[in-house]
From TrEMBL:
PANTHER family: HTH LYSR-TYPE DOMAIN-CONTAINING PROTEIN (PTHR30126:SF93), HTH-TYPE TRANSCRIPTIONAL REGULATOR (PTHR30126). The keyword 4Fe-4S does not apply. Keywords: DNA-binding, Transcription, Transcription regulation. Residues 1-58 form the HTH lysR-type domain. Belongs to the LysR transcriptional regulatory family. One of its GO terms (molecular function) is transcription cis-regulatory region binding. InterPro entries: LysR_HTH_N, LysR_subst-bd, WH-like_DNA-bd_sf, WH_DNA-bd_sf. Pfam families: HTH_1, LysR_substrate. This is HTH lysR-type domain-containing protein. It comes from Priestia veravalensis.
């Protein structure tokens, strides 16, 4: 029995839906169904029964969810204990692709000027996936542009990121399409769609890409317009980008950590650095 299968099982049980659990975990639905089937075959019981609204735990599933909660809690306690023993040289940070390309590289550069021995790893994924990683201790902290549960997570630092509309031509409104990240919760996607609606451009074709680099390449090729962090757009001026800063206020980006958990030395050092940033 794999711990990841228990995490998937817990997510399905909490959402009462395989498709919703897959979305939350960043998996495709068949993979989630397959892992549940593997778990059922191993335990030789049925864990869910289908309803008109999704799935519901069986009697055996109710027993397993109780043990699953205890097992995952113990695993998190082990991670916390080991995290406290980690070297000051290790730190894993999460951020969405677009957020990670804004101010974060400069923050890390400034941090390493004073703490050059720290090994930093930045993991990118959709924010709902990153939240799961943070909950389970797979990452030490994350930069987030969306909402988070203040009772579960602690805010360490906030900065503001201006947004730019980027295009190949100066005549933005003549663009062929709106180029967006495939993540429906991406704040830059939302800002671009709001901009298009405000300027009566909402009927334009929407083209989605999974990667930030693909979004930028599409704009450079004249396929359409997109919304990016202004700090990132300014670094790509030489790539035929026309940049228009949005007049609307900048977005807030928060660095959050788990609330009542032991922090690694690397995380404590990074958090202290961020708190001293102006």
């Amino acid at each position: 029995m794999e711990s990841n299968d228990l995490k998937i099982f817990k997510e399905v049980a909490e959402n009462k839906s395989i498709s919703k659990a897959a979305e939350q975990l960043g998996y495709v639905q068949p993979n989630v169904s397959q892992r549940i089937k593997v778990l059922e075959n191993e335990l030789e019981v049925s864990l869910f029964k289908r309803t008109n609204r999704g799935v519901k735990l069986t009697k055996e599933g109710e027993i397993l969810i109780d043990y699953t909660n205890r097992i995952l809690t113990l695993m998190n306690e082990v991670k916390d204990t080991l995290a406290s023993e980690k070297s000051e040289k290790t730190l894993t940070i999460g951020a969405s692709q677009t957020v990670s390309a804004g101010k974060i590289p400069q923050l890390i550069t400034d941090f390493l000027e004073n703490y050059s021995t720290v090994l930093i790893k930045v993991k990118t994924a959709q924010e709902q996936v990153l939240m799961k990683w943070l909950e389970s201790g797979d990452i030490d902290g994350m930069f987030i542009s969306g909402k988070y549960e203040p009772t579960a997570f602690q805010k360490v630092y906030t900065y503001f990121e201006s947004i730019a509309i980027v295009s190949f031509d100066k005549n933005v409104h003549q663009s062929k399409a709106l180029i967006v990240n495939s993540d429906l919760n991406c704040v830059y996607r939302k800002k671009l769609l709001a901009y298009a609606k405000k300027h009566n451009q909402e009927n334009k074709k929407i083209i989605e890409f999974d990667s930030l680099e693909a979004v930028m390449q599409a704009v450079q090729n004249g396929l359409g317009i997109s919304a990016l962090p202004l700090s990132l757009a300014n670094t790509r001026k030489n790539e035929c980008f026309h940049i228009q800063q949005l007049v609307e206020g900048p977005i807030e980006i928060h660095f959050i950590v788990r609330g009542e958990h032991e922090k690694s030395k690397g995380l404590k050092t990074f958090s202290g650095f961020l708190r001293n940033e102006t």
